[in-house]
Amino acid sequence: MQVVLRRTVAEVRVSGGTLPAGAPVACLIGAAGRDPERYAAPDLFDPFRTDQDRSTGGPESCPAVLLGRLEAELGVRALLDAMPRLRWADGFRPSSTGLLTRGPRTLLVRPG
Description:
two-stranded antiparallel sheet; 18% helix; alpha+beta
C-alpha cells in the first residue's frame, strides 16, 4: 500500500501549518526512506541497509508491525540464503502499477 488514511487525535503542527484534531491525513508510506538528506541511497532497494530506522515501521507495540517485520526479514533472508545469486531475468525490469498498491504484477527472476 502506498497510502494509509488516518485522522489526527490531537492538534498537530506540521511544516505547512497546523492540523486540527480529527483532521483526515493521507500518509504516503511509499515515500518512507526516500529522503536523500537522511538516507545514503534513497532509491536503492536494499533490505539490509544500515541507515534505516524503526520510524518507518509503525508503532513498536502493534502485533501486526512486529509480525510483518519478522515475516519479511525471515522470508527475504531465507530466499537469499537459498538463492544467493538471484537476479532479474535478462531484460526484465519491474514496473509499478496501481494507485494504492504501487507494485509490479510480476517479478521475473533467474536463480543465477
